[in-house]
Every structure is written in C-alpha cells, then in structure tokens.
C-alpha cells in the first residue's frame, strides 16, 4: 500500500544504518522532496563480485500526493548522526596531525592555533565539541590568492600563501555557509552537523 526504495550501503558504512532511521528522497519523476523510513537492512552481501561488499537497505516512502513509477531512480540521503545546538566549522578549517586536530583562530589581529576536539565530521561541516566558542573567527585559506608568486616578485613559490579571514583584494569578510544561518567566517552554532 505504498512505495519502497531499495538501495545498497557499502560494508564500511553499513553499521551506521539501522531500522527506523529517517531518509530524505528525491525522485526524477517529481520535484517534490520525499521522506521515508528504513525498514530493513540486509544481513547478506548483496554484491559478491566487488572487493567492497554492499548490503541492501529497504526504505518505505512516507505517503505523499505524488505519482511514482516502478523502476524510477532515486537519490537517498540517510541521517546517521545529528545533535541539537552544535558548534560547527567548515571541515576545510580543521587541520589534522596524527590524532591531533587544530583550527586557526583570529584573535586581536593575530592568528593562533587552537587544539580542538571533533564530534561528527562531514564533507562540509565538522562538529567541534571543545576548544572553540561561538563567535570565534576561524581562519580559512583565501582561495582568490595564488600559491605561486608572480614572475616579477622575488621570493619562494609560496609567497601568496597566508591565513586570511578577509578577501585580500576587496577587504570584505568572506561568508561561509553554516548551520543556523551564521557566517562571516565565524564558528556558527545551531543545527545538526553534516553527516
């Protein structure tokens, strides 16, 4: 009496998926965003020919007033971690040295390195559980600056490399997407981390 979506999850991530998890779906035949719930996780390898085995995951699509077609393709996003009132920074701001994670912070015009503890880590945002407070100005690379010095400049090939929270060409503060709508290079608070 409804629609289901079947997908596969690789062995390296199958332990993050469990029955009852929420899913977001987009189907090519409709522009409406759909939701669903994981109803089953396969215990047997669904793909025996691959070096990275995959396991079948069944998702029941929540009732919606749309027409879906058998065999249609869908994009599935499963929420495997989440928290309320989290402090996040862009993942590119976090530097790893072995097991030590650090973030560069602008403090009174001086850049200092701060050791941080990470929570959930996503491709865009990383949860910071200690080491930073809301409002700290996190330093990111200025992507408009060249890493190679101009031919008429003397110095090494890393002359343009620096830590900036402002766009050097315009003097304007760069805005970074963050949970809770905060930005401007600050560590935003609120909303779940990307997972």
Provide structural commentary.
The protein is mostly beta strands. It contains no helices and 13 strands. Strands 6, 7, 8, 9, 10 and 11 form a six-stranded antiparallel β-sheet that branches. Strand 7 and strand 8 form a beta hairpin. The chain is elongated and about 60 Å long. The relative contact order is 0.16. The C terminus is likely disordered.
Short synopsis of the structure:
The chain has no helices and 13 strands. Residues 153-195 have low confidence and may be disordered.
Integer-rounded radius of gyration: 22 Å
Estimate the helix proportion, in percent. under 10%
Principal-axis shape equals elongated
Distance between the termini: 31 Å
Low-pLDDT ranges: 153-195
- Strand residue percentage: 35-45%
Write the layout of secondary structure elements.
Blueprint: E1 4-10, E2 22-27, E3 34-45, E4 54-61, E5 74-78, E6 88-90, E7 94-97, E8 100-107, E9 110-121, E10 125-130, E11 137-138, E12 140-141, E13 163-164
Antiparallel strand pairs: 1-4, 2-3, 2-5, 3-4, 6-10, 7-8, 8-9, 8-11, 9-10, 12-13
Search tags:
single chain; 195 residues; mainly beta; six-stranded antiparallel sheet; five-stranded antiparallel sheet; 13 strands; disordered C terminus
